[in-house]
Protein: Acetyltransferase
Organism: Streptomyces azureus
Amino acid sequence: MNDVPEIRAMIRELAAYERAAEQARATEEQLREALFGEHPAAYALIAEDDGTGEAVGYALWFPRFSTWTGTRGMHLEDLYVRPRARGAGHGKTLLATLAATCRRNGYDRFEWWVLAWNTPTIDFYKSLGVELLEEWKVCRLSGEPLRELAAQAPDAVNPASDV
């Protein structure tokens, strides 16, 4: 739980790297609840420098389910290694640890997204044998379009009708 401020700082660093700093709005309280609350929404691993013990990276993931295989899997939400620590094996160690978690838990899939312009990261993933699924597109509904669609739900399930 003491790692939450450092995780939040690295989330903001990752968002800045991905050219979306303004979108990283999670508070320490939200992260604490998501990671350590009664019903965790996600799990995190921290990579530390062997010499200093300083946090140099993190991976944040959550379970998912495939209706096609009938099995659980893992979705990697974030993988980040601070620039000064890149090339030292931290990213590969985080991914290997998550792959071992998948195997231990019987997860058939380990999936995540990568920005199309992030060539160094894509090359790193390819070096590990990662399959890039070019035929799939990420869909996102948020903000006003999400509210508008939710308003069209039947009253019995429409959270806006309870207000």
